[in-house]
Amino acid sequence: MVKHNNVVPNGHFRKEWQLRVRTWFNQPARKYRRRQHRIKRALKLAPRPSAGALRPVVQCSTVKYNSRARFGKGFTLEELKRAGIAKKEARGIGIAVDHRRKNKCEESLRTNSQRLKDYRSKLVLFPLPKKIKKTKKDQKKKKTVAGTKAKVAVKAVQHRGVILPIPQRSTRTRSRVISAEDKKVRARQLLAKAKADHKLEGQRAKMAKKALEEEANPKKEKEPKKEKEPKPAKGKGKAE
Questions:
Q1: For residue 159, what are the CA distances in angstroms to 43, 47, 124, 163, 182?
Q2: Which pLDDT belongs to residue 189?
Q3: Residues 89, 166: Cα–Cα separation, whole Å
Q4: Cβ-count burial of 32 within 10 angstroms (0-12 exposed, 13-18 middle, 19+ buried)?
Q5: What does residue 46 show for φ and ψ, rounded to 5 degrees?
């Protein structure tokens, strides 16, 4: 018999969890399938780069990630203009264009325009075959053009991987021997001084500005006021 105000024993056993376990036995097959898709796509794009179009370098959003650089959707019209590339021409030579994006600083405009110039200097363009009419003589020409195009395509080497990757700076500090100068530094005092300087920055700037104004426009010294003579007391009687 259950005594006192305890929990009623109500154990849920024999759930047979082994029958409801989620498995991913198809993972290796999917990996192989993704690889085959990438190979087919690269062959379809050849001799163009397998990674696709060139992307701009932009800064991540929010305060937490704004120091990190990543690839954006496309280049702005202003960046293309500075690099000397037309909007329609850019799409034809493998450059992504985003007409909605705007440049909010000179730095991003300069870096991306230089990125476009570097890409243009390394770019190799193959001539497109001319449209030929369907006649017996022209069909022979078409075959020769197709043959030359195939030979050129065989000689061309397809670029694999990211086009012009972003150079990420490493913020890691290497371990080193502590020098005598480092031992002389008093970290607590240094931090306290930096904290005080930051706190009193505005007040000190205000005082310095006031001192400069006083030097530029010195005030005239006021003359000391003359002491007033005491008035004679009014009396009822006449003076002798």
A1: 12, 8, 11, 8, 49
A2: 95
A3: 24
A4: exposed
A5: -55, 140
DSSP summary character for residue 19: G
> What are 186-195's pLDDT values in tens digits?
999 999 999 9
Of the two residues 224 and 100, the one the predictor is more confident about is 100
In sequence order, the β-bridge partners of residue 58 are 70
Over its C-alpha atoms, the chain yields an Rg (Å, rounded) of 41
Phi, psi of 69 (to 5 degrees): -100, 145
Short-list 66, 137, 77, CA closest to 101: 77
Beta bridge partners of 70: 58
Q: Read off the pLDDT of each residue in 6-24 and give the average, rounded to a whole number.
A: 86
Q: What pLDDT shows up at residue 47?
A: 85
What stretches of the chain show up as alpha helix (H) in DSSP? 27-45, 62-65, 77-83, 87-92, 106-122, 136-155, 180-184, 187-199, 201-216
